[in-house]
Design goal:
Elements lengths: L1 E5 L3 H7 L3 E9 L2 E6 L23 E9 L6 E4 L6 E7 L1 H13 L7 H7 L2 E6 L26 E5 L3 E6 L2 H8 L10 H16 L11 H7 L5 H5 L8 H4 L7 E10 L2 E9 L20 H20 L9 H5 L6 H11 L2
The protein binds iron/sulfur cluster (2 copies).
One iron/sulfur cluster binds next to helix 10.
Length: 344
């Protein structure tokens, strides 16, 4: 389904989505982030600081509550995600490509019921990048594109005073059908302009990972390279790079005890982070990834080697957030290029 929507009618579209909680980028204290719609929608954002992964994989989620009364069997009460369907507007194409990668992670060896319950309740309305929103974008070199529709339910393309709106999935068609009268059929001139805008977007210069196809083998051959320690020397282990990454998904599971007589509480999943020194700490005190070099290697090889070996695609989708936000300037493009080049 392909349609045209005048920009001044986008708020009417959002208003028609009565069965959804609609989220869109909002600017707060200079930072773009997804927020529930509260006023006119804005789609003039760069990219959000936080990716949209939280809609299916929140920072903290309760699996079940428990109660243990002495002499009785433990009582468990599962807490499944519930609530309205979410429509997330303004998702950039790179972040859209993060969605199927997360789907793979949470549905490979086992199906994660919590992730899947949230995931089926989210529809992503993407916005093609007419030009890269960040100087650190590199989607093209990792198999993506500023006009990719992968992982999205609807794609919007900015044509000036109107959007070219394309449904990618059935969920996307539902979003458009909910406000069918607002949309017009695209003319031949609209189709022509769409092609021109997309071609210009793809032709726009970006940064690049060199030889991404060679990266898995070269990184594998470089496991013991002294470069890892050298490149990670400045790392302070803050974890920003992974918390802000649209495809990082490590988590921890803990029991939060609230009362002891009777014993009761909740089992909770929270994000964890491979850049934290204690992430791999054994109870013996031994830490197989003791230094920052080993931890940087893990992050980079997971993105460009291990995920590729498992699923035939890079896990990094080239959003550039980890580069832009690293407080000490560690740059994943530079790291991959340097290690791969050094491997010969
Ligand atoms: S953001 Fe930079 S300093 Fe922080 S953990 Fe990542 S690489 Fe290290
Ligand atoms: S590794 Fe960095 S550039 Fe790649 S997807 Fe994650 S945050 Fe974006």
């Amino acid at each position: 389904m392909e349609k045209i929507l005048e920009k001044k009618r986008v708020d009417d579209w959002v208003a028609a989505l009565t069965g959804y909680e609609v989220h869109a980028p909002a600017l707060e204290e200079g930072i773009w982030g997804y927020q529930p719609i509260n006023g006119p929608i804005r789609l003039d954002h760069t990219n959000t600081k936080q990716p949209p992964k939280e809609f299916a994989f929140p920072q903290r989620e309760v699996f079940f509550s428990f109660e243990q009364i002495k002499g009785e069997a433990p009582r468990l009460k599962q807490v499944m995600p519930s609530g309205p369907r979410h429509a997330v507007f303004g998702v950039r194409p790179c972040d859209g490509r993060g969605v199927p990668r997360m789907d793979k992670v949470f549905n490979d060896h086992a199906q994660d019921a919590y992730y899947n319950a949230r995931r089926k309740n989210v529809a992503y309305v993407g916005l093609a990048c007419n030009k890269p929103p960040s100087a650190n974008c590199f989607c093209l070199s990792v198999g993506g594109s500023p006009v990719s529709t992968d992982g999205l339910d609807v794609q919007l393309t900015d044509l000036g005073d109107r959007y070219f709106v394309k449904a990618i999935t059935e969920a996307g068609k539902d979003l458009m059908t909910a406000a069918g009268k607002l949309f017009a059929d695209p003319s031949a001139a609209d189709q022509k302009q769409l092609k021109q805008v997309h071609a210009a977007a793809v032709a726009h210069p970006q940064r690049a990972v060199n030889n991404p196809d060679q990266a898995p083998a070269k990184l594998k051959a470089s496991f013991k390279s002294p470069l890892w320690d050298e490149l990670a020397q400045a790392c302070i282990g803050c974890g920003i790079c992974t918390f802000l990454c649209p495809t990082c998904h490590c988590f921890d599971i803990n029991d939060e005890v609230q009362g002891k007589a009777p014993l009761n509480g909740q089992r909770v999943r929270t994000w964890d982070n491979c850049q934290f020194p204690d992430f791999t700490m054994h109870s013996s005190g031994h830490n197989p990834r003791e230094g920052t070099g080993a931890r940087l290697r893990q992050r980079v090889c997971h993105k460009f080697q291990y995920f590729y070996e498992n699923f035939g695609m890079h896990q990094c989708i080239g959003c550039g957030r980890c580069i832009t936000e690293c407080p000490v300037g560690i740059d994943i493009i530079h790291v991959v290029n340097k290690v791969v080049e050094n491997a010969g």
